[in-house]
Amino acid sequence: MSNKPLNHRILAEFRYDLPRVERGYAGQTLYVNVGDGSIAARPVDEGMKHTFTGGRGFDLWLLWQAVTGDTRWDSPENEIVISTGPLGGTTTYPGAGKSIVATISPLTGIPVDSNVGGYFGPLLKFAGWDAIEVQGIAGQEVIVFVDGDSGIVRIIAAPEEAVDSYRLPEQLMAEFGGDTPAEKRAVSSVTSGPGAEHVLMGCLNFSFYDVRRGFVRLKQAGRGGIGTVLRRKRIKALVVKRSGVRGDSNGPADWGRLERTGARMHKEIHDQDPRMFDMRGGGTTYITKIMNDYDLLPVHNFQYGSHPEAVKLYKSEFRPYFSLGIPNGCWYGCTLACAQCVERFELRTGPLAGQTVPVDGPEYETIAGIGANCGIWDPRAVLEANFYCDMYGIDTISFGTATAFVMECYEAGILNRERTGGLDLRFGHADAMLELLHQMGRGEGFGLVVGQGIRRMKAIFAERYGADPKFLQDIGMECKGLEYSEYVSKESLAQQGGYGLANKGPQHDEAWLIFMDQVNNQIPTFEDKAEALHYFPMWRTWFGLNGLCKLPWNDVEPADNKTAHPPREAAKVPEHVRNYVDLFVGVTGREDVREPADLIRMSEKVYNFQRVFNLKMGQGTRQHDRPPYRSMGPVTVAEYESRADRYDKQLRELAGIDPAGKTTEEKIAALRAYREAQYEKLLDAVYARRGWTPDGLPTIETLRDLGIDFPDVVELVQSRIGG
Fold first, then answer.
1. Which of 374, 410, 416, 712 is 20 to 30 A from 131 in CA distance terms?
2. How is the chain split into domains, by residue range?
3. 362 preceded by cis ω (within 30°)?
4. What does the pLDDT average to over 465-475?
């Protein structure tokens, strides 16, 4: 730690011999308790690898052992666990630089996992650790520094560094990163921000040094309030350093197989990305137009699926802000390079008003949540909110969805200027949205109320203002306590299940089935939908077990994908699935993995274990899988009448009800009864396909078949289902 600019004091130190990473694993995990200063190495055995694989699996296993059913998000024993998985850090295949983070969520009270780019997870593994678990609450502000070059882990007092994720990552780079681009690229940090201290939706920022631009950039582990947990522990940053990353740093079992598989995929990205979505030229901004075209873009708190002014939030409106022509990969070797950056953006509000700053993004979820869902059709307002959310350490998805809920409550008369402290929070009011965000960053005003999340706001608005709890439940777009990500699911029963059944709460990274279900009608029966709600959540879980990004899987397809396979199979992108078998075996050498079904089997173990973990924390049953009605159908008269022809036709043809002569309120009630009954039938079908009880619990036979029938797991499940 030479050339330290700040006055650091080492509170605890642990020295270790740097292990060689073999077949994707370092063979040990790092335990750090910032409360009592203890640091320890813990072994990773073959049973842990074969049962939990890595990434999200390692996170959940370590967290399970650390907490009890009484642990809450702010309990000292709660942990933040970060792992990348055996394929994480691979440089010869695109999208292999992910970290997966888990903790007990402040918003939901159950485990939450979040998949994030940046260099931290891969560098941590190459520094000798398959995962890091951080426990305890520090007595003062600290940094945890893992120096893989020297084989030292330190807990360091950090009284002088900034807290916000605009200045702090650059300060950390100056302290730990050396002078040359290569030295800076060998360092990554995990930080949050001052807003995370005041709200329950705090995010984490994972850094990577952009050599071509010459500054630190950020990717977010946004969901579930993990940043709030970090700041509760009084951790300013986790920092890792490891120099000399190479193509074979993972110690692959079969370098030739790995190299051949990667070469095929890199060529395909080169050829196909410009013809498909041009991720390299605009990231995920292209999605806004597609969602608006198909009536899937959340508008005005998910009331509607499209809007004439949505064109102002299309990719074409953001491209002029991006510095194009410079690669944007958030890990070495990712040719998809979708992590767009606005190098110079002049802020007009907040503590940095008038300053020019870089903005990472925006991603589609931010555009749709803060923009369309709040009725704000201004790309500059979206970019400004994007920057400040990152700086304050606040999840853009929860912020956007929660703000849209508040705006509808304002327009419904539940809120007013007096109750919001002077904020005119109607749809479209960008200045009020930004001031709400700044209040969260400062820890004051109505921002503190909104920062509690939708579930708690529903209780507050009913108790304080006499709002109808049923109405609030219907329009409050959360399930299990987590705010919805940004897709309208009214016309896709499978997607309603994808959101409602998601283990951590309604995030689309478990299942995105809208096109298969709604647009292409490829899964018409309950059995078809249940099969899709088995396969796709398991397949997407697999990326999180291994440290992978899902975008190279299906956002770039082989040229013949749709002609070489039946439509339902084409949705799986079979050639790419085969690539991942080759990639996994090429790194790990596991002889028991031969077919795609073997990958799904890995996910089933972890997915079912997480379901039982939810049960341990007081949820995990059928009642917790029911979403707000707005995710199923229209709640208000205006909502119904905006698509009256569609809904009347559904009443006649699907529900067998003649809408003639009925009031809109009567038609809403009739359609609701039909759709809620359909959803219950979907739950029955999905639970049966997954080997679960009618109440949504894995059966003992399922646990035994998957090899996760640990005594405490079986005892917990038996206590709920008997036998």
1. 712
2. 9-241, 277-483, 493-556+591-721
3. yes
4. 98
Per this entry, what is the length of the chain?
A: 723
Tokens, residue 149: 């070059």
475-496 pLDDT per residue, tens = 999 999 999 999 999 999 999 9
* Per-residue H/E/C for 485-510: CCCCCCCCHHHHHHHHCCCCCCCCCC
Question: What does pTM read for this prediction?
Answer: 0.97
Residue closest to 296 by CA, chosen among 69, 465, 486, 41? 486
pLDDT at 130: 98
Please give the structure tokens belonging to residue 443: 């820890």
Architecture of the domain made up of 9-241: 4-Layer Sandwich (3.60)
End-to-end Cα, the chain, rounded Å: 58
161 with 236: CB under 8 angstroms?
A: yes
Burial class (CB in 10 A: 0-12, 13-18, 19+), 708: buried
The 3-state DSSP class for residue 209 equals strand
Tokens of 75: 């309990």
Whether domain 277-483 has CATH 1.10.569.10: yes
Q: What is the CATH number assigned to the segment(s) 493-556+591-721?
A: 1.10.599.10
Strand, coil or helix: 70: coil
pLDDT surpasses 60 at 4: no
